[in-house]
Design brief:
Layout (H helix, E strand, L loop, with lengths): L2 H16 L4 E3 L4 H5 L1 E2 L4 H13 L19 E2 H11 L3 E3 L11 H7 L1 H11 L5 H4 L2 H8 L10 H5 L8 H14 L5
């Protein structure tokens, strides 16, 4: 259940296959493009866990459920172009033409040979493509309805930290670069 890794590999592979500056269309429909949602980066989730473990009084924490999200709801139309730009690509909206678009998982698997060459050329960790949950990426990105979470419970105990969702992705992308998951 890792959106960041799937997207990082997708965008890295897209750049390798299509070239820097290529246009990468959002691969799902208009409803998914505009539906509001929230994301939770590993960094902010970890920070919340530390905060909650030290929070007083403990009665405010024990037995409660908390939605921990990076910040206010956003749509892929706001995020996609910015994520694509991080990889030197131009992110655009979904195609309105006949035939639709190919989902992330199918596109990546069709370009498996390009990834294997990129792996060798860039000295990347072997086998990452096979171990990445692209089906999860497809499932989440194509959701055509609003799916943002109420984070008032976490705020009620004093954890009010928020960030631009792109920041959470970028932190993950940079770690993936350091560990040679992506070039």
């Amino acid at each position: 259940m890792n959106m960041a890794q799937g997207l990082a590999i997708y965008f890295s592979l897209y750049r390798e296959a299509e070239g820097e500056g290529a246009e990468v269309r959002f691969p799902y429909g208009e409803e998914a493009w505009t539906a509001l949602h929230t994301d939770s980066s590993a960094d902010i989730l970890g920070r919340f866990h530390v905060y909650a473990s030290l929070a007083e009084p403990v009665e405010n924490i024990v037995g409660r459920a908390f939605n921990v999200v990076d910040g206010p709801a956003f749509a892929w139309r706001d995020l996609w172009p910015r994520l694509a730009a991080y990889f030197g690509l131009v992110g655009t909206g979904p195609s309105t033409g006949i035939g639709g678009q190919v989902g992330v998982q199918d596109w990546v698997h069709a370009k498996k040979d390009v990834w294997e060459k990129l792996e060798t050329k860039s000295g990347l960790k072997a086998g990452v493509l096979k171990e990445t949950g692209f089906d999860f990426v497809d499932a989440v990105m194509r959701i055509p309805v609003r799916r943002d979470f109420d984070s008032s419970a976490r705020k009620s105990i004093g954890f009010t930290e928020e960030r631009d969702p792109v920041e959470g992705y970028v932190l993950a992308f940079e770690e993936m670069r350091k560990t040679r998951i992506i070039p």
